[in-house]
Amino acid sequence: MTDLVIMKDRQAVTSSLNVAENFEKRHDHVLRDIDGVEKDVPNFGEMFFETNEPDSYGRDRRVIYMNRDGFTILAMGFTGKKALQFKLKYIEAFNQMEKHIKENQMQLPSDPMEILKLTFAAQENTNKKVKEVENRVSNLEENTILSAGDYGYISRRINQRVAEVARGFGNITQEQRGKLHRDINSGVKAVTGVLTRTQLRQKHFKTVLEYINDWEPSTATKMQVRQMTLDLETA
């Protein structure tokens, strides 16, 4: 991924090309979106400015640069989880670049190489902070309690698996079936470390499904179920 934000004319900006690349959009569509907000933004010229830059074939192409406010207006229309992650990265990149500019505005370098070094330093710091944010978001998502739909699906799979195993014992009573349910539920709690099924988290979902698919009752449970069948036959 190229640098999200650069310094141009002593302010933090990004370009329509950069936005198109990182949000995986066509560049002409990004330009179209920018043109679409021009009539509704009174100070459009303070946020966006147009230039021409050569493409890979050396042909001039239209490119629009935008500051933080311009990017914010443009990105309002980008939706989805992936778009949100890129918005967070851009916001952090603007913050870091503007911080560096503010701290060094009395002694900003004029040499292009020094400016480039400053840009790289800001970007490196940005990437570290974005990674921290992504880790916190990932941890939050994994520890989210199971949705009603996922919880219901696990319950149905447990019932289905118990029914599959129960057929191997012939006709069994509800009491025998209850022993099978207690066995599989005990295993679910053991592999996830929870005390009750209601404490299952999103991070447990895949593990629980794999356990259910592979579950077989313990030897003790099998013997108890068979003994109950013998007791019924001899009663």
Automatic annotation (TrEMBL):
Gene source species: Enterococcus hulanensis
InterPro entries membership: ORF6C_dom, Phage_regulatory_Rha
Name the record gives this protein: Rha family transcriptional regulator
NCBIfam families referenced in this protein's UniProt entry, alphabetically: phage_pRha
ORF6C domain mapped to chain residues: 116-225
Short name of one Pfam family: ORF6C
